[in-house]
Amino acid sequence: MKFEIVFGDITKIGTEAVVNAANNQLKQGAGVCGAIFKAVGAIDLQNECNRIGYCKTGEAVLTSGYALCKYVIHTVGSIWKDGSDSEKALLKNCYTNSLLLAKQYNVKSIAFPLISAGIYGFPENEAEAVAVEAINEFQTGNRDSDMTVYLVKFNEANLLFPKMQTMPLKKRSLPLLSLMLGKSLKNK
Length: 188
Description:
- It is a single chain.
- This protein has helices at residues 31-40, 42-52, 87-104, 124-141, 156-160, 174-186, and strands spanning 2-7, 17-22, 60-64, 71-76, 109-112, 148-153.
- The chain is an alpha/beta fold and 188 residues long.
- Strands 1-6-5-2-4-3 form a six-stranded mixed beta sheet, sandwiched between helices.
- β3 (60-64) and β4 form a beta hairpin.
- The chain is globular, with a radius of gyration of 16 Å.
- The N and C termini lie far apart (39 Å).
């Protein structure tokens, strides 16, 4: 199993499955959820989500990916309170349950957003640490898997260097991007 952290637009990564940071009612939202719905085809995806109806926090459900990919896996992240209300455990379950669902459907490549780090208020560094821990633990137990997992971070680099989003992942230079991003932000 391969795991990479990349910067980009999750709707342009080109994986077999994309994970949606969903709400419990599986309704189209803003942020990464809105971008995925738009890329997939909002009406069809919403109709399928309406048939499913509900997803508990930390769990995951699967729909078709329509025009975007083979599957969209919807998972509901935890809302940050103060870090002492099982937020991290629920967030970790999002990644684990999504990966288990991907494994069940023989997904070869999957892209995750940084779940709960947007409107749900999870501190980005803590959300990333939980994601990395969950993915690495899954990787340890599934060494024979040929699944490739991407944690896709969207940040100002996506706006400064939009062509990076459409480049094949193997051709991207993340150290160069970080260097360019750091330099560009300082020159603002």
